Amino acid sequence: MTRVLHILDHSLPLHSGYAFRTRAIMHAQMKLGLDVRGITGLRHTKDGPDREEADGLTFHRTRGEISGPAGLREWREISALADAICALAQEWRPDVLHAHSPAMDGMAALRAGQRLGIPVVYEIRAFWEDAAVGNGTGSAGSLKYRLTRALENHVVGQADHVVTICEGLRTDLLARGFDAGKITIMPNGVDLSLFGNPVERGDALARALADELSLGTGPVIGFIGSFYDYEGLDDLVSSMPRLLERHPEARLLLVGGGPMAEAVEAQALASSARHAIRFTGRVPHEHVDRYYALTDIMAYPRKKSRLTDLVTPLKPLEAMAQGKLVAASDVGGHRELVTHARTGVLFTPDDPAACAAALADLLDRRGEWEAIRGAAREYVAEHRDWARNAERYQAVYQRVIGPVPTRHAGAAA
């Protein structure tokens, strides 16, 4: 049985898109017969034991405190994670180290892999220098941006194989001169065992929630996710007065939180459409399906940027699996997921009027809703179900490992 150690920034029981993709990958690999565990670096800040079970998965934690000036601190962080990987490998002998971005995890895996003689697969979920620009913690072209990019290039160059979550990231790596044969796409997917059985709006809890939020008879436009600037929620709020001109009973339901939450709420309060906008704040992940049940259209008005053009988000796929209509801005990451007028609709990014028109037009086309929802659900089931996508990892592992060595009876379990 192939043993895979996933090297992670953070994991369950913390909740994030990053942690949920990891959970989906590891569960799908276990179903395929792989033996998997995870290890997190020092940025996993939730208290817990050194070896922690979460949702049927095993995670090991790196311990320690790192100080020092920027640059040296990150280098020490890499060293601490590499040492923790090597220590774990003495007890639980992995066949492959599967590191997930950021590049610091990849660098720690390379160090450990060299010491242990174990191949390294490096998976890029986003270029973190671009993510920092997108969430307001960095600036394009800064020293930190250039250093992060240089570290990424080094890890990609040294890893035995590289995985990206979408074509946008792969194309960017090819433009940097990396070998196409070394890079495999492992697209974002949905665990249909979790999202494939949506709650109906008529469910008693969903009805009570709708009454509590005063959503009326709808229609309801929804957004569920993190409130970052690049998500374009300010454009969505700005679109509401125009949408109400054509559909006066429409409501906007915003579920989640993040750095832009206060600004977006203040904008909504100042809007002529404030009576039609609802905020819930963050909600427990196990209750998210109830909020999906309240919506007719899920809106994803991402702003156009290098980040949103290169990276595919997970939330539109979850919405499709939930049987919801999807309206998304026409950026590269969305174009990889949504076929306009077939599995959803696309509209001009950074343009509230275009967003309002797309939503209103879709609301006018109720007779087409069932076909659009069916096509979207079929697309997810055929191309984005983790139960299928995870099979691609096996080919990657076999390529870098070769024949899996037979374990001796005394090998650590």
Helix content: 40-55%
**Can you summarize the main beta sheet?**
8 strands, mixed
CATH class of the largest domain: Alpha Beta
Q: What percentage of the residues does DSSP assign to strands (E)?
A: 15-25%
If you had to describe this structure to a student in words, what would you say it looks like?
This protein is α/β, with parallel strands linked by helices and 413 residues long. It has two domains: 3-189 and 386-401, Glycogen Phosphorylase B (Rossmann fold, 3-Layer(aba) Sandwich); 192-383, Rossmann fold (3-Layer(aba) Sandwich). 44% of the residues lie in helices and 17% in strands. It is built from 18 helices and 14 strands. The protein has helices at residues 17-31, 72-91, 103-116, 128-134, 143-158, 167-175, 192-195, 204-212, 233-246, 261-269, 288-293, 306-310, 315-321, 332-335, 352-364, 369-383, 386-389, 391-401, and strands at 3-8, 35-40, 51-54, 57-61, 96-100, 120-124, 161-164, 183-185, 220-226, 251-257, 277-281, 297-300, 325-329, 345-347. The protein has an eight-stranded mixed sheet, with helices on both faces. Strand 13, helix 14 (332-335) and strand 14 (345-347) form a beta-alpha-beta unit. The longest helix has 20 residues, at 72-91. The radius of gyration is 22 Å and the shape is globular. The relative contact order is 0.12. Mean pLDDT is 93; it is low at 406-413. This is Glycosyltransferase, exosortase A system-associated. Keywords: Transferase. Residues 17-189 form the Glycosyltransferase subfamily 4-like N-terminal domain. It comes from Alteraurantiacibacter aquimixticola. Pfam families: Glyco_trans_1_4, Glyco_trans_4_4.
